[in-house]
Amino acid sequence: MVFVFRQLEEKCREQNKGLYITFVNLTKAFDTVSRTGLWRILERLGCPPKFLQMVIQLHQNQQGHVRLNSDVSEPFPISNGVKQGCVLAPTLFSIFFSKMIKQATEDLAPEDGVYVRYRLDGSLFNLRRLQAHTKNQERLIRDLLFADDAALVAHTEQALYRITSCFAETSSLFGLEVSLKKTEVLHQPAPHDMYIQPRISINNTGLKATQQFTYLGSIISYDAKIDKEIDNKLSKANSSFGRMYKRVWKNKNLRATTKTRVYRAVVITTLLYGSESWVLYGSHTRLLERFHQRCLRTILDVHWTDYVSNVAILEQAGLPSIEAMIVKFKLRWVGHVHRMDDHRLPKIVMYSELSSGYRERGAPRKRYKDSLKRTLSACDFDVQGWSDLATDRSAWRCRIQEATTKFQEERITAANNKRLRRNNPTQTPTPHPCRHCSRICRARIGLINHERACRQIHGQPLDLR
Fold it and tell me: In this protein, which residues make up the domain named Reverse transcriptase (predicted)?
């Protein structure tokens, strides 16, 4: 759902539409499910009576204890909620929650929500195919659900207020309670609109307005940028790295290969969580690579005074660069989305655009499609035919492994050549002498600025030839 969120933010920004989001927090959602209502829902959905009776018996005569230090309380009956730790609990709650959402949105107006127009039978990068009048489909998006985390979306504040009110009313009917203290509202204005703090309330209680929200471990910002997300990931990865400083990284009894495996399993996964949905700029990549190098130099006990290059550090650790890892994760994720069923929301959003809105003239901010297209080209994929290869999962993964290995090798070669040119310059810079005072400038732009001053002194016109 993080990918869907970032795609919605990007498309609203690209097509000059505002986006309002309510991040709903339910109080102890799994523990307050009405079991009587859940059995009725399963019965109406056509659940076989024998299986339904088995599920009911699993939840009958359930008791709990409270343990405080070494003391255990008397048993007490548990009559609400699904069983914690049971393999059926997530499925039962999803059925219950989906039925509640369906009932909550029955009375809403058709324009309440976000409409996207999509088409799955063409190229991802060909936007002209979405201009057809007969082959496109539309999808109304009002809610994004993952377990008990719900987010409600709309283009206007009034529409979001109606959706949030209906959700809160239906939740109370189903025995669930919305936490008014933890439920927050985020507003992403259109590119040329001023930011206005949204005012959404439930039962005459105003909800907190925020400019960033942590949803499923990723930071969603009101300006659709990932600067805060990168800073947050660096902070968390640095914290996890620091907690193992003495016990792992400086432990003389552990081999370097063991340390790098722990580093990749703990620190890298924390750092690159959700990176499949990122749209990175060079500044972001440099921050991530700098952190990567600092950690590896600590693990390998290489001091900065040793003058060891970054390429040598990666080869010694046996790890690729952060950029190569992100390329691999992104290509694997895109292939996974392409293989999804046609009704899945991530696939629909990736191949879609907003049904309303317009694009301004000129180049927009870097989009996910732009980043993906550049990644495919850098890895020698056919930009137009990559989807055919991605249909076969095993072939796609093998091709990604080959492409990322080649990408890393080319990156190392480019870094070595750059260092060689810097350390062994073969060409002398072209001199740029001043015609008036014979001063030598290293660059032509410096010559132009210098001759402006010389013109005032010598009274001669400026010659830009």
Answer: 1-220
Residue 118 in tokens: 């999509």
SS3 category, 431: coil
CA atoms within 13 A on the CB side of 223: 9
Selection from 64, 155, 163 nearest residue 109 by Cα: 163
Q: Give Cα separations from 432 to 162, 362, 425, 455, 464 (angstroms).
A: 68, 36, 19, 16, 12
Q: Are 240 and 267 in contact (CB under 8 A)?
A: yes
Query: Helix, strand or coil for residue 135?
Result: coil
- Look up residue 135 and give its two tokens: 């082959």
For the chain, the domains span: 2-105+142-221, 227-319, 428-465
Tokens of 167: 């959700």
Residues 237/23, Cβ–Cβ less than 8 Å: no
DSSP string, 91-116: HHHHHHHHHHHHHHTTTS-TTSSEEE
Alpha-carbon distance 122 to 150, whole Å?
A: 32
Report the alpha-carbon angle 9-11-17, nearest 5: 85
The answer to whether the CB of 177 falls within 8 A of the CB of 7 is: no
CA distance 77 to 65: 9
Provide the CB-side half-sphere exposure for 29 (13 A, CA).
Answer: 19
Report the alpha-carbon distance of residue 183 to residue 160 in Å, rounded.
13
What's the pLDDT tens digit per position in 107-159? 888 888 899 998 888 788 887 888 777 788 889 999 888 888 889 999 999 99
With CA atoms as reference, report the closest residue to 111 among 144, 165, 154: 154
| 114 phi and psi angles, rounded to 5 deg | -120, 120
The alpha carbon of 399 is separated from its chain's Cα centroid by a whole number of angstroms, namely 24
Query: What is the pTM for the complete model shown?
Result: 0.82
Is 154:108 a contact under the CB 8 Å cutoff?
no
Contact 233, 223 (CB under 8 A): no
Question: Where does residue 321 rank: exposed (0-12), middle (13-18), buried (19+ CB within 10 A)?
Answer: buried
- Say how far residue 209 (Cα) sits from the centre of its chain: 21
Q: Report pLDDT digits (tens) over 170-229.
A: 888 888 888 888 899 999 998 888 888 889 888 888 899 999 888 888 899 998 899 999
pLDDT in tens, 369-426: 999 999 999 898 988 889 889 999 999 999 999 999 999 999 999 988 888 888 887 6
Provide mean pLDDT across the span 435-451.
82
3-state secondary structure 241-266: HHHCHHHHHCCCCCCHHHHHHHHHHH
Residue whose token pair is 């979306």: 153
Quickly count: other Cβ atoms within 10 Å of residue 302's Cβ: 17
